[in-house]
Each structure stands twice: as C-alpha cells, then as structure tokens.
Design a protein that fits this description.
Elements (H helix, E strand, L loop, with lengths): L1 E5 L2 E6 L4 E5 L20 E5 L16 H14 L5 E6 L1 H12 L4 E7 L7 H19 L4 H13 L3 H6 L1 H12 L3 H12 L12 E7 L7 H9 L7 E6 L6 H4 L1 H17 L1
Length: 270
Amino acid sequence: MSFQLIDRIAVEDEGEGPVVVCVHGLGGSSNTYTPLMPALARHRVVRIDLPGSGRSQRAEGPLTIERYVETVLSVCERLGIQRAHWVGHSMGTIVCQHIAAAHPKCVASLALFGPLIAPPDAARTAMKARADKARADKARGGAAGMHEITQALLQGAISADTRQRLPVAVAFVRESLMRQDGEAYARSCEALAGAQPAAVENIEAAVLLVTGDEDGVAPPQAVRAMADRLHRAASKRVVVLPKCGHWTPVERPDECQRELREFLAAQARS
C-alpha cells in the first residue's frame, strides 16, 4: 500500500486490477472502508480523505460538495485514473452521484452505502447547528462539543442491535468522530448542509444502494424513491440490512462485503 499527500489531500492507493475509488461521509475517513477491503482484494483501491476530514484536515477555505467533487477528480487525474468503480458512504454518496451524473465516462459503476440525494430541510438546519457547536467549542480550546456531538450520533446513527452486540463498531465510529478537528468538522457539516442534488436521472452506470432498516439518514423508503429516479441506470439494486443503522460498512461488514463483491463481479461479467 502506498500513502501520499496530493495537494494536502491524504490518499491511500493499494492493490492491482480494476480501479475502485472510495469516498467517505461526514465524520468519516478512508478508514470507513477498511471493513470492506476483503471484498476488493482483486482491485486497485484508492481511498481519499476528503478536505477537512481524516488526515486532510489542514485543507483551508470553505468546504462544499462541489469542492469535494473537484478534489476527488483532481486526485484521480494525478494518479492516471480515467475510469473507476465508485464506492460512497453517506455524504460521499452525494459526491459520487454528482460525478456519475456530470462525468459519466469516469464511472464504471456506483456502490452507495447509506445513500441520500440531498439532506431534507430539517437535517440542513441540524447540520448548521452542529457546525456552530463544534466551532464554538474549538474556539474555546476544548473538545466537549465534539464529545457531545459524538455521543448523540452514537445513539442516533447506529442501531440498538449494533450497540449491544458489536461494541467494536461503536468504538470505531466514536474514534472516527472524536479525532475530527472541531473547525474542520464544522466546515464539513456546512458542506453537507449546503448540498444540492445531482441530476440522478442522468446516471447511466449500474447502481447498488445499501441501507439499514434503522437508518434515519437514508431510510429505506427514501432509498427506494431514489432508485425509482435512476431511469437510465444500466441496472439498480436496493438492499435493506436488518437491525442496521447508518454506518452500514461498519455495522454489517460481512453483508456489505458480500453485496459489494457480487455487484463488482456482475460488472466484470457485463
């Protein structure tokens, strides 16, 4: 595996074969996809820490979905990647949708976990409030705000079954969130709060949509409605995992590995 910084963006690049580019969500990092790596053993996997997240927290300036798209495409260009299978989680699924809709030649397929087209108005308001909390706490030189945000998300974004049976998954998500710099996390929240939907009706690639039956960010009915809008997709499949919240790759790694492996195998045959 190679690690490099490309214009202050942390990038992990490993393996050989068809290219898979992984785009994480709010509060995540390239590490979000570690549980899925066994399913990608025969691929070249590029995992990117988005500006403001993970090891790319030193990125300066406002963060937007448009900036994320530009950043990811720029990294791919620097790495000589012209076409890839794209894997996204949460906010990262919005980034992937924009790339697929606007740059179809770059996209061989889309595998989206906890997918959403854009946040509803209530979620946008909550994101802005969360940004204010993280930023205010950072200004005071403390971490209580991020701790409070993390505790709320552990209760709201992870299923009760996961919290009871898989404490290591809870620890994974907790650590991912607690390592976020308050100011950088605030700007990431603002990026999601301002996210506009991609023209999903124009997506031509095959699409896999995976969510949990207890996912409040990407509830099954919303994911099915999203699938109904993929009129031009080469194929589409919706998977709802039982007793699972929003952090699908972490909460149900075996099931997500299986779905991703079978999906990519089907693309190789087509």
